[in-house]
Specification:
mainly alpha; rod-shaped; two-stranded antiparallel ribbon; 372 residues
Length: 372
């Protein structure tokens, strides 16, 4: 025979989310719940937890042992009625009834989302930092121009940079003159070739002057061939010097510009730090001094790195420059000397020595078969 569990006053008081008494549906739910519990267990030892729609469990009832009973604790999982489930789900919060019969209401789960970074704010911060850095550098440049500000000078490095810039101007002048010589020589060779063809044509048509026209035709053609050989040597000289001036030296000067920019930034932040150190030290200025010290250290490391890079590039540039110009100057001298001496073999030998291959006239133009 089934034994009925003792009644408990707390079990007879239905509680809602707003603290009011429930209607007859609540009485029916509590009565069904009480009958389903084991013998000797009252609602005073029962904790009911209800979750919202997102929960996978509909209802959980945790039961503890009845005082004075030797029975082991048991737990039951009960699915509430549809009316009670709708009521609990509609509350939007967790309802906990601990032992003692007092109802406590807890707020629903709170999800903390990560703070989303605003791209516009990031761009604004970058613009602010850029503007501040530009202002400091501009102020430093103006101070140096007016003679009020101090600047960091590496005497040895500055002297090497000045020599490089002066040499670059001189090499550019040599390059310009060599290009002019190449253009004029090309026109002269073209004229000599045309003159040789004209002499050859007259040699065939003038029987009285056949030999004289023939000698002149051979001489002009010979000079044209030697001129083309000399033109190939000069063009090779121009290409090598152009690579040295407009690529190798220009790349080094680009690094020098970066070094000078780093030097200006370093001096600008150094001046700021010196001004802050000369001012008062209090709670407001100490954070600024510390931040200025950090920025100064960052730009000092950048300045030291760029100075080291410039020193290394200048060293390698000097070695490469000597090697390239030595070969090109020997080529230019031997080719010019052999041409004006009329030594065709020596001129051709000079081109072979420097692995220069001449292009035949019209070699770049495709044949009629290739055009098809």
């Amino acid at each position: 025979m089934a034994q009925e569990s003792p009644k408990n006053s707390a079990a007879e008081i239905p509680v809602t989310s707003n603290g009011q008494l429930e209607d007859s549906h609540e009485h029916s739910f509590n009565r069904d719940l009480k009958r389903s519990l084991p013998v000797g267990l009252g609602l005073s030892e029962t904790k009911i937890t209800s979750h919202g729609f997102d929960s996978t469990k509909e209802g959980v009832v945790e039961a503890g042992p009845f005082p004075g009973s030797s029975a082991s604790p048991k737990s039951s999982v009960i699915s509430p009625s549809s009316a009670a489930a709708s009521r609990l789900a509609g509350q939007g919060c967790d309802l906990i009834i601990p032992a003692g019969g007092k109802a406590q209401q807890k707020s629903g789960p709170v999800v903390l989302a990560e703070e989303v970074k605003n791209p516009a704010m990031e761009k604004l911060e970058l613009v602010r930092k850029w503007s501040l850095n530009t202002y400091k550098c501009t102020r430093q440049i103006i101070s140096e121009k007016l003679g009020r500000g101090s600047r960091t000078v590496d005497l040895e490095l500055e002297a090497q940079i000045d020599i490089l810039r002066d040499n670059k101007k001189k090499y550019e002048n040599i390059l310009k003159l060599a290009q002019t010589l190449s253009t004029q020589l090309f026109q002269m060779v073209h004229t000599q070739r045309q003159l040789g063809d004209a002499f050859a044509d007259l040699s065939l048509k003038s029987l009285e002057l056949h030999e004289e026209f023939g000698y002149n035709a051979d001489t002009q053609k010979f000079l044209a061939r030697n001129g083309e050989t000399l033109l190939g040597a000069i063009n090779f000289f121009i290409a090598s010097v152009n690579t040295l001036v407009n690529k190798t030296i220009e790349d080094t000067l680009l690094t020098v510009k970066q070094y000078e920019s780093a030097r200006i930034e370093y001096d600008a932040y150094r001046t700021d730090l010196e001004e802050l150190n000369l001012g008062p030290r209090d709670a407001n200025t100490l954070p600024k001094i510390e931040q200025s010290q950090q920025l100064f250290q960052v730009h000092k490391e950048k300045y030291d790195k760029m100075r080291n890079d410039v020193s290394i590039k200048l060293k390698f540039l000097e070695e490469n420059k000597v090697k390239v110009l030595h070969n090109q100057l020997v080529l230019f001298h031997n080719a010019i000397a052999a041409y004006f001496a009329g030594n065709q073999k020596q001129l051709e030998q000079t081109l072979k020595q420097f692995h220069i291959k001449l292009k035949n006239p019209g070699a770049d133009a495709p044949s009629w078969l290739e055009e098809q």
